[in-house]
Prior knowledge:
Blueprint: H1 2-15, H2 21-25, E1 30-35, E2 38-43, H3 47-54, H4 60-77, E3 81-85, E4 89-93, E5 97-114, H5 116-120, E6 145-161, E7 166-173, E8 189-197, E9 204-211, H6 216-219, H7 232-236, E10 245-252, E11 260-267, E12 285-286, E13 304-305, E14 319-329, E15 346-360, H8 372-383, E16 391-405, E17 408-423, E18 447-459, E19 463-473, E20 483-493, E21 500-512, E22 532-545
Amino acid sequence: MRIFRLFILGIALAGLAPGSLHTAWAAEEGQLVKKDGRWQYVSTEDPGLKYLYLKGIITQEEYEKGLSVVQAKERLQTPNFKIDVNNGLNIRVGDNFLLKMRVLTQVRYTHSTYNKTWGTIGDSRNPEILGGQVEFRAIRKQSDSNEFSVPRAQLQFMGHAFDPDFRYNVSLALDQTPWDQEGGSGRARLLDAYIASWHIPFATVQLGQQKVWFNRSQISSNATTAFADNMTVQNAFAANLINSRDIGIQILSDEEQYKLNYAIGIWNGAGTNLTREGTSVSQAVPASNVQAGLGGGTPSANVRRTYNWDTRFLTGELMYTARLLYKISGNPGYGQGDILNSRTPQVAIAAGYAYNPAQNYLSSIRSDIVDRAYRQSVTKNGNGRLLGGGIYDFQTYEVDLIGKYLGWSIQAEGYYRHQRVRNHNSQTVAFDPTTNPTGPQVELGQAWGWYAQVGKYVIPRKLEVAVRYGFMDPSTKQVNDLVKEFGAALNYSFDGTYNNRLIVDYANITMGSGGRAPDRSPWETIPGFGQNLIENRFNVQYQFYF
């Protein structure tokens, strides 16, 4: 055995002898490359040069010069971009350009049951007012419902250009919704379109169509929620009352770097893909001031006409928002559950304020018809009771709390909205009041609400159980109109992320059918009016987020 060890040692020393250096230099150079999940050794040398060198036809110096020429040629021929897959498809060109492409798809089955009040009384206070008609129009549900849908199908293009701190985000939504009566369900619409400067972390600037940094439930991504959908109270108290996005500019701090953070913004206040020109107020014009033949009108003291948005005002006012957030411990972010199974407490508190003046919610009895998509958005977000009420100045306040620790999560928000009616009509000249059989306008008062949600990952990063409860009073001066919602959910992540998961949730939604609403008849004499409308809703949703 000792002789064998000496023999091996002699061979090793011989390899270090001067005569063997030529062979040692000829050792193959290369690198390990991961391909199809397996590591492979790939040579970086030119096989022709290596053959000439090993045969002694060229010297070491000639070999190295030739190799440098070959490598320089390969660098010129090799593309200067890289493509990789990491939470989407990433295309990089040097350090100054990145394009990340992502796809979010949510496929859902929903089963809903309704109580008898839904079939007899229905909801006559929240639906959209069509053309200002004031006869009794109620949505009645006289049978259970089953439906498959794709509530969210979104494409996202984001990254940076010119330098890593000059960022952009362009997102398209092809969502399906039963609310879009204009035939746009499933068609592509612009969701996000903004550019941002992150050169100053404490004062980043974002300009374009984007999320309004106001309340937590609207900032949170739909891809990171514990439930399939938000509750009514979470949507209704959006800064613009329509949805989580608007067009404008906001300045905010980088919440990844600071404990105390802020966000301030100036916006159109009319939601996505719409400016105030589409919601402006158009006055009625006395026919005595109308020249014969203008718009088909003739002078008459008993008739009033309008010219379909030809006369506009209140288009110069904007929405203003502000938010302060303090991270008591860690950085909880805006995802609802503690999917990271935090080892230290993650706690933050925040407060927000939004002022959105001169919002035209008039019906066609009192002004020209507002853009229909706008009215539908107001209704879809749980604020349909306000339609027909006048020209509003809204002030919305919110406070929120979030905590995460060892798979547990809790979040809660409280809301209050002051709903000041600037004018019940189109300001100086109103439409003929005799066309309104309901008499004087209804006073709604203010709105307020709250919710709380608790979750626990019973299997870390895999299985979460969550429950929540929400309450909303949409009009403090009316009765029998409260909205209450209880929900429970199970969501399972197949890969420990939000990218590939299944959500099963249940909601019990109770809504009062009573209370008066603007430009809608008071149907208190109908038997059962004011009773609770109760829906039991079950969702099974699969989410694919690449």
